[in-house]
Amino acid sequence: MKILIFWEQDYYGGVDKHLIELLKTWPNKSDQITVLTNEENEAASSFTKKNGFLHKKLKVVKFKSFSHNIINFKLRKFKILQYFLYPLLPLLFFLNLNLIKKLLNDFKDHEIIISNNGGYPASWNCIASIIAAKKIGITKRFLLIHHESSDFFFLLKWFHKKVDKLLSNSVSKIICVSKSTKNSFLKKRFVKVKQTKIKVIYNTLEIKKPKKNFNLRTRFKINKKKMIIGVISRIEPYKGHMEFINSISKIDKSHLDKIHVLIVGKGYGNFQKILRNKVKKLNLEDKITFTGFMPEASENIISQFDLLVNPTQTFEGYGLSILEAINLKIPVIATKVGAIEEVFGERNINIISNKNINAMSLKIKMFINDNNFFKKKAYSAFKFFSSNYRPMSKEYRNLLLKN
Prior knowledge:
There is one protein chain. By secondary structure, this protein is α/β, with parallel strands linked by helices. The chain has two domains: 2-201, Glycogen Phosphorylase B (Rossmann fold), CATH 3.40.50.2000; 216-387, Rossmann fold (3-Layer(aba) Sandwich). Helices cover 42% and strands 16% of the residues. It is built from 18 helices and 13 strands. The protein has a seven-stranded parallel sheet with strand order 3-2-1-4-5-6-7. Helix 5 packs across helix 6 (124-136) and helix 10 crosses helix 16. The mean pLDDT is 93.
């Protein structure tokens, strides 16, 4: 099979982790796979450098993107310009549709395209790639959605309806990483396809031993007697960093002295500065460290946590960092949003209500007091997920063959 994976993205996230896992475990090495991605994709720049799994049949091709998403991302420091850009969305979409059509002409010998989209609409070029693929005759066209579908400004409702109709007439199959992602898509959008054209394929991660080629305690000068509580994600408001910091501030000194908090990830705009100022205001600078982006593999970072906290406040399409922690037998506290309960459940991780700072604080304090219960649950979760492990790549390939 000749497979084209279209992937437009601006910075790191769960989408690139998913794609690496998919390709790394791909069951048939004779398949010819091309990854077509934008030059601005930060994750793609390290994609080929850090991973030795890329087999001889895999190519990575980069293109210059002029999509609304990428221009908007470049203007992130100029909010007023972003407001002026939004009304141009329809024009930019149809201009880019023609550009993507010309771009895909070089790959018309591929019988399959998978458009790897974060949410929906998310990357407008990912949607355009499916529409363009039909126009040039690529036989099988799959849209992969990882996250929540978003609402739209009412004055552009006509445009969203138009795009969703074009997609409905062009897509062969829509793949969602959870039922929650699927339900969000069906509830918020105008896409009209048969239920049989939407397939849920849950994420999987290969279980492997972490590499101990660096030490978090040494790098960030953390006392070996202190437990490390970590959050690892992009630094954005919906990810719940502010709520997490506020929950830490509610823990009394006797318990606080037993932990050190690491916030791992990169932030854009002013939000990270706001968080740092909050930590300073709460006098928690000696308790909370912002590591910034860390180039090491996420599983090698999480393996050195004593507890992973996933404080997302709105929606999680799956929660790959939670699965990584489970594979490493690291206890998890997570908010009840999106697919968290669907995928993991209280039997495997410790779930709390979102926006409930007191509940988060109390649960962390319980862990500090006696983490044996948390460790036993983590081990039980590892046994459950490891015994049911089957590479998602097999299910993906079977789906490509059938449709």
